Amino acid sequence: MTDSRTSTGRVTSEDGTGIAYRVIGRGPGVVLLHGAMQSGAGLVELARSLAGSFTCYLPDRRGRGTSGPYGADHRLHKDVEDLDALLTATGARDVVGISSGAIIALRAALARPGLRRLVAFEPPLDIGGSNPTGWLDRFDREIAAGRVAAALVTGMRATRMGPAAFRVLPRWLLERLTTTFIARQEREGAGEEPTFRELAPTLHHDARMVAETADDVGAFRQVRAEVLLLGGSRSPAYLKKALTALEEVLPGARRAELAGLGHAAANNTAAGGRPERVAEEVRRFLT
Q1: In what residue span(s) does the AB hydrolase-1 domain sit (predicted)?
Q2: Using one digit for the tens of pLDDT, what is the confidence trace for 30-59?
Q3: CA–CA–CA angle 155, 278, 21 (5° rounding)
Q4: Where are the domains of the chain?
Q5: How far apart are alpha carbons 2 and 53 in whole angstroms?
Q6: How far is Cα 278 from Cα 231, in angstroms, rounded to an integer?
Q7: Is the C-alpha dihedral spanning 69, 74, 80, 81 positive or negative?
Q8: 0.85 exceeded by pTM
Q9: Angle CA(161)–CA(164)–CA(165) in degrees, nearest 5?
Q10: CATH class of 6-128+216-286
Q11: Which of the four pLDDT bands, split at 50, 70 and 90, describes residue 1?
Q12: How many angstroms from the chain centroid is the CA of residue 107?
């Protein structure tokens, strides 16, 4: 019988920052670590699909939900400390990292040899310039000027995310459509997820994470956890390139591709995901 009841908890990271999390399910513990422009609420349906077999812990990474804010000196090691605090508090030894959450999980596997199993869903690693972050300066200027829609268009175009229209429509129209979407979301509510306006500044830190790990894939050769490299057949080429690079340095890793799905596959259904498909692969690997 699936137990999809939700409870909440909070841990304190090494620097004193509080990290809030949800708990769904019963069984061995697994942390589901979300990606950019999300909070833990964005993976609730994935957790419910796994809840019959696992106790799923869904943290809100810093700057999201009721977790504490980013510090002025924030770097990737702070995200790793946050995850480490949650793993220590819950006793979980398995992690499913989604997108930028997968980069954090991979780094945590280096710092925490006791991590047993890791699912890395499309970490957006920069392999030889495949995912450049030169757009970040423009993004930061637009955020500072309060032009949230413009900043989101900058980020989504650079990372090749969002609807296919983002790759063909003129920028002025994309900004107008994004402004309309943000206004509607704020008027109607975004459910448990923070709004796009609230999440937009966090994209800066995800981009910095990509820059910090650029061409450093060889470091993951020291990962001792069992690893599943997971991606979608419709995802951008640079994400597939990152998985291939990881496959080369982690010869014992397994790799699986979700036919017909893209980078949003793990998200809740309303956000374009197919979480039950992702759960099938995760469950097969973890059991």
Answers
A1: 30-280
A2: 999 999 999 999 999 999 999 999 999 999
A3: 70
A4: 6-128+216-286, 136-205
A5: 8
A6: 9
A7: negative
A8: yes
A9: 110
A10: alpha beta
A11: very low
A12: 14
